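Every protein is a chain of amino acids, and every chain bends into a shape of its own. Below is the pair of lines this work produces for a single protein:
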Amino acid sequence: MLFPQLLKSRLSRLATSFVVTFSLLSASPAHAQRVNVVRDAEIEALVADYVRPILKVAGLNRSGIEVVLVNDNSFNAFVAGRRIFVHAGALLQSESPNEIIGVLAHEVAHLAGGHQHRLREQLARAQTMAVVAMLVGVGAGVAGAATGSEGFGRAATGLAMGGTEMARRSLLGYQRTEEITADRAAVDYLNKTKQSGRGMLKTFDRMGRDLALAGVRIDPYQVSHPMPRDRIANLEELVRKSPYFETKDPAGLQLRHDLMRGKLAAYTAGPAAARRIFKDPSSIGMQYADAISTYLSGNPRDALAKIDRLIASQPKNPYFHEMRGEILIKANRPQDAAKAFGQAVKLAPSSGLLQVGYGQALLATGDEAQISKAVSELSAGLTREREYVNGYRFLAQAHGRLGNIGAAELASAEERYYSGNYQEARVFAARAQTKLKRGSPEWVRAQDIINSKPQGR
């Protein structure tokens, strides 16, 4: 984890995005946490480009690790399983790609170093220490009772409490050490990819200022992370002596970063927030934010004119065409929306999210031939994005329109399954099986859903 999060708040829904929920299992299923996640093709593609070279030099490029965007506006990131979770607030607040790349390098270091596994071992050790301390305290208390010594009993209670506190401090100290190790490994990854560590220093400086402004007074021995100033002191010399310290992000990458920030600003706080980020009203990031804000305000005609100007300046940007499709759907022009999404898919053929958007637009036309094509596009998109819940909803609607009731029931089962509603998923899967050919791949998948169990059980 980068740093304990501050000042949480919810983010709005993004274009062709939605919020889903992941269950994160900690040391035991009883401590599972649920995390709201935002899906967006443009942002996910950008962050994937940020992390790819880092994963390669860390030896994790073939490990199936993915980056997930968390629906939270605080500046934070953490790892769980094979996923790196990055708060949307970190993306919005970062002024350059290098700042986020530094964050990702730190989290990759946790994965490469096996810190999650060792942390679980330390948790078990701390738990054992606490139990032993409690038992020693109980034993001393019993002895005190047997001798009639009240002071002995009080000392026993203190012994138990002190043992528990010692176990907790030991665990926190271990975590702080792992954070320092991850920081140093991150600098090494940045050097190997010929990138600057300046962004890491800027991130820790921002965190220090946030703590100062919040008036938070923290005992450095009572937290799981080193204090920001300590982290800067540990890293500054190492970062500054790198031959890549003055290296700047490529202009094209900075442009994509600005567009991402413009999108997030428009969806989370409106045009005023975008104007605070982009001082130049003619900047492309500000223009993008303005087009999206106009669309969100319910003015599709003006929004269409604004996005068309952006497309004229970057005709091969798939996400401008995606946004155009969104606007046209809102303007009740599904045929034109389908064409826009089709162009987006041509420009970014590997994006499952864009394919689902294309299928949604085709479905909205109401034309039977287009709906058949929608089934194909939605199915292909969901092959790449198996957990994209909304896609199954559209797929169920498309199958239903075509009279494929068994397939529609199975798609509804998938939607419930990936939403974590296992009970309803089993009901739909059982209904699907009565209409599917026994032993077919679809029938077998329905059986898998029927046999599924919630995570952690």
Notes: Residues 422 and 454 are 7 Å apart (CA to CA). The chain is about 65% helix and 5% strand.
